[in-house]
Amino acid sequence: MSSYDFQTIESKWQREWAAKQIYKTTIDHSKPKFYALDMFPYPSGAGLHVGHPLGYIASDIVSRYKRLNGYNVLHPMGFDAFGLPAEQYAIQTGQHPAVTTEENLTRYKEQLNRIGFSYDWDRELRTTDPKYYKWTQWIFIQLFESWYNTKTDKAESIDALITIFENEGNVNIDHNGEETENFTAEGWENKSRQEQEAVLQCYRLAFQKENTVNWCEELGTVLANDEVKNGLSERGGHEVTQKIMKQWYLRITAYADRLLDGLNTIDWSDSIKETQRNWIGKSQGASINFKIEASHHTIEVFTTRPDTIFGSTFMVLAPDHELVSQITTNVQRAEIEAYATIANNKSELERKKDKSVSGVFTGAYALHPFTQKKLPIYISEYVLSGYGTGAIMAVPAHDDRDHAFAKKFGIDIIQVISSKEEIDIQEQSYDANYGKLMNSENFDRLTVKEASQAIIQLAEERGFGTKKINYKLRDAGYSRQRYWGEPFPIVHQDGIPTVINELPVELPPVDSYEAKGTTESPLANNEEWVNYTNGGVNGRRETDTMPGYAGSSWYFLRYMDPNNDQEFVGKESLEYWNQVDLYIGGTEHATGHLLYSRFWTKFLCDRGHISFDEPFKKLVNQGMIQGESKILNLGNREVHIPINKLTKEGKLTPQIFNQIKSKDNRFNDISTENLTLDNGIIPLISKIEKMSKSLLNVVNPDDVSNQYGADTLRLYEMFLGPLEDSKPWSTKGIDGTYRFLKKLWALFYDQDGTAQWNDTAASKDSMKTLHKTIKKITDDINAMSLNTSVAQFMICVNELGSQKCQNKTVLEQVLILLNPFAPHITEELWNAIGNKGFIADATWPAYDEKHLIESSKLYPISINGKTRTNLEFPLDMSKDEIEKNVLANEIVRKWLDGKPPKKVIVVPGRIVNVVL
RNA sequence: GCGGGCGUGGUGAAAUUGGUAGACACGCUAGACUUAGGAUCUAGUGCCUCACGGUGUGAAGGUUCGAGUCCUUUCGCCCGCACCA
Fold first, then answer.
1. Closest nucleotide relative to residue A380's CA, C1' based
2. Which CATH class is domain A734-851?
3. For chain A, where do the domains classified as CATH 3.90.740.10 start and end?
C-alpha cells in the first residue's frame, strides 16, 4: 500500500475483530482482572456527537493498555434505555417507545463501532430488556423485604424484625420514620394485618409514604430531588410544584453515614466527593424541646448552635408544621391560615425568589427551657418543613435571618457571644463561630465549643434535649407516573402491598401513553392488567413505574454475568470481576446515579449478595466538549446557523445561506439582500456553548471518521487537553494528528509503497527514542495524562523519522505502544511487517533505563537565576571542577565583569547558578 | 454566603521533589519541490528591540541562590450546594 488509506484499513479490521471475536471476555483465573467501565448512554434520537466518545476513548485506551500488560479486561457497553424522550415521542406519534428506542440504539451501536472500541458486545445490556429488569425488580423486592438494623449497622431481613416484634415488641428497636408508639409482643399480636404493615412500612428499605413531592405537571410525574434544578425539572426545564402524594421511597437515609464514610476509601475527584458530602449534608447539633405555655404540646427544634440558646428570643415554625393549627390562638387564626395557604401553595422556585422577610404571630408562647422566659411563636416561610424538625429557636443576635425577622417584628436581640471588634448587635447580627459566652448565666466565659458540650449535657440531665445529628439527605422518591419504566412487582391487596415473585413483571400494552389527566401513570389505562388475581393474591397492581436510576444503580454488576437467568449475577463472576477498577463518566451524575449505585452496592453487600460495599474504586470525570455556535445577528434577534453547512473555514456566503433556507423553513423570513456583507461573507458571531441539536452546533463523530479516520478522531480527542477539562470542539487542530499518522505510515512505506523496515541494527539514538517513549507512555497512561502521550508519540515519530530508523523491532514496539490509541493503523502495520495474529495479544514493551543513561549533561548556566548559556560537562565531574569550568567561561566572565561571584550553586545533573 | 476547581503566546496546551517557561500541535511568515495541492519538506515564530539586551505564567507582596510551582493579600472565571437553623 503506498499511502495511508484509513477507510479501507479501518473497515477491514473492524470486520476482522468482530468476526474473530477478539474482544470476547471470559473468566480466566490465570490472569489478573481489570474492569473498565463507561457510564452507559441513554440512546437519544440525535445520535452521538463528538463529546460522547471522549470518555469512551479514554477507557478504551486504558482497557487495551491493560490487556497488553497481561490483564484480563472486562470492558462492556450497554444502554440506559428507559426514559422520558422516547415516551414523549410515543405520546406524539403513538409509536411504542420500544420501537424508537430500538432504532436509536442501533444507530448508537453503529456509531460506537465506527470508532473501534474494544467492547465485548456479547455482554451488551439494555435496562429495558425484561431479562434485565427482572433483576431490577428482584433487587426492589430485596429492599422491600429488608430493614436497617442500627445496632448491627446493616440491612437485615424484615422477617428478623417481625420475629423481634413477636417476641418482645419494639422496645429494643430504634424508632423509625412515622412510628412513635411503643408496643409489646402482645401489642403486636393484637394489631390487625393492616396495622402491622403500617408499622413495617416505617422500617422497610423500600416503602410507601404520603409526603410532599416534587410534582411536574408538564411531564406528568413526580421527580426526585436530584432531578430538580433550581426549582425546574432537570429534563425539559418545566415548573415543579409541591404536592402531597403517596409514593414509593427508598430509605437511603439509613445509609447516610456509611455513604459519607465510604468516600474516604475511594479514588474519586475531590469535587465529586465534596458534592456528595454537601448533598448528604451531615450536621451535628442538638435536639431541644420547648414547652408551649398553657398547652401539653412541645416544639422540638434542631440547632447546630446550642451554645446560643440564651440568646433565643422567639421561635419560628414552618407554615406547614403540624403544630401550627393546634397552637394558634383564635385571635390569630385567620391571619395565620391566610399566610399558610399562600406559603404552602408556592412552588419551590417562587419561595426561593422571594427573599423578603415575612411571617405571622401564632398568638402562642413557648417557654425557654433554661430561663422560663416567654418566647413568641411565629410562622414564616424562611423555615423549611423539610429540614430538621421544621421549627427553630431563633437567635437574632447571631443569625442573619433571625436578625432581619426580629428587626421587622420588634423582637429583643440579645448578644450571647462576645466579639473582639466593637459591634452594634441591634444593627447587625454577629455570626460568631468562636468567642466567649455572655448573658448566659452559669455558662458565661466558656468558649463556644465548651458551652455547646455543657449546655447539651445539662439539657440531657434535665430531660429536654439531646445530642443530635441531622442530614440534608432525604429518602429517595422511587415512583414515577410514567409508562416507559420498570413496573413494580407489587399488588395492593386489602391495603397491603404484596410482592409478586413471578418475575419479570412485564410492561403491558396500553392504548395511550398519556395519563388521563390524573396523577396516575398510563399503566392504569389497562384495566385488565391492573386487576391482578393469582393463587390467592388478588388486588390492584401498583401502576407507577420505577425511576431512571433504578436500572443504572446496579448495571455494572450485570455485565459480569449478563445472561444469567438464575441469579442477578453468578457468584463466580462476582468473585472474579469484583469492583469496577476504573469508571469514566460525566460529573452530572454526582448526586444521582453515583450516590444511588453506592447505596445499592452497600445494601446488596449487607444482605450477602455481593462481597464489596463500594462499586467504583476509581472514578474519572471527563470534561464536556462544547460546541462552537455560529450566530447571525439580525439586530432585533440572533439566529443560530447550522455549522455543518458552512465552508471549511467556518464562513457563510449568501449562496450557502440560500441553500440552507431552501431546506429549512426556520430561515424563511431572513432575506440575504438585507444582510451586510464583508468581502462576500455574511459576518457571524462565534459563541462557545453546549453542543446540542437545538443550537445547530453538533459535530458528528461519523463525519470526522469519514474525513480523517477513527484513529485520527481518537488521537485528536485525547490531544485536545486533559481528560477532565471541558473544552470546545475545534476542527482546526485535527490536521496535526492526521499528519502524525501519515508520518508514522511513512516510517513503514516510502511514497512508492516500498517497505522500509529491515533488520539492520537500531542506532543508539533510536533505542533512546524508543525507551524514552516507553517510559513516558506507560507513566502517562497510568496517570490518565493521555494528551501528553499523544505529544510523546509525535516526538517519537519525528525523531525516528529524522534518524531514518528502519529497525523492525523498534518500529514494532512503537506500534504496540500506539495500539491503544490508534488500534486500526497499528493492527494494519503489525500485520504488514509479518506478524501472525492480532496486535491486541502482543506484550507491552519493557522499559530499559540503560538506553537513556548519558555520560554527560548540557548544563544550563544561569546568572542570578536567569539562563545565559549552556555548557556540557561529564555527569561524574565534581562540583568544584564544574564551578571552575563555569567561571572560566567567556560569557560568564563577561557577566562577572572582573568581580568574584557571591556564590556559585551547582546542582549535579541539573543546573548551575552563579550569583553576582 | 459556603464548598470545590482554574487563570501560562494569536489558539489548544506542556513543564518530576521549586531547577533552561511555552514541549507537542494548530495558525502565521519565508522558502523548496511540483502532475498547482486543503499534498510534502526546510527554516522561523511569547512580547519589546535593527541589535546588545530587556521583559514575561491574572495583579501586588513575601520565602529562596533560583518560584508557573511554596506562603500572604487581591482580582476574574467555571462548577456544586444554598433561607440547611
1. B83
2. mainly alpha
3. 283-470
Q: What does the pLDDT look like over A466-493, one tens digit per residue?
A: 888 888 898 888 998 889 999 999 999 9
Q: Which nucleotide is nearest to A720 (CA to C1')?
A: B12
Cis check: omega of the bond before A522, within 30 degrees of 0: no
- Which nucleotide is closest to the Cα of A894 by its C1'? B52
Tell me which amino acid residue A282 is.
K
User: Is the C-beta of residue A775 closer than 7 Å to nucleic acid chain B?
Assistant: no
The closest of A402, A400, A381 to A390, measured between CA atoms, is: A381
ipTM value, please give it.
Answer: 0.94
Taking the C1' atom of every nucleotide in all shown strands and the CA of A357, the nearest one is: B83
CATH numeric code, A856-915:
3.10.20.590
In this complex, the answer to whether residue A270 has its CB under 7 A from any atom of chain B, a nucleic strand, is yes
- Is A282 in contact with A471 (CB distance < 8 Å)? yes
Which bases of chain B come closer than 7 Å to a protein CB? 3-5, 11-15, 17, 19-21, 23-27, 38-42, 54, 65-67, 78-81, 83-85
- CATH code of A283-470, in short, is 3.90.740.10
Residues 303-322 of A with CB under 7 A from strand B: 303-305, 318
pLDDT at A419 over 90: no
- Conformation bin of residue A704: beta by default, left when phi > 0, alpha when psi is -120 to 50: alpha
Distance CA A240, CA A855 (A): 71
Q: Using the CA of A352, which nucleotide's C1' is the nearest one?
A: B83
Spell A240-260 as b/e; 16+ CB within 10 A means b.
bbbeebebbbbbbbbbbebbb
Please, where in chain A does CATH 1.10.730.10 lie?
734-851
- Asked whether residue A820's C-beta has any atom of DNA/RNA strand B within 7 A, the reply is no
Worst-scoring range by mean pLDDT, A56-60, A188-192, A215-219, A468-472? A215-219
Domain A26-139+556-621, CATH? 3.40.50.620
Delimit the CATH 3.10.20.590 region(s) of chain A: 856-915
Please report, to the nearest 10 degrees, the dihedral formed by the alpha carbons of residues A18, A22, A28, A34 taken in order: -90
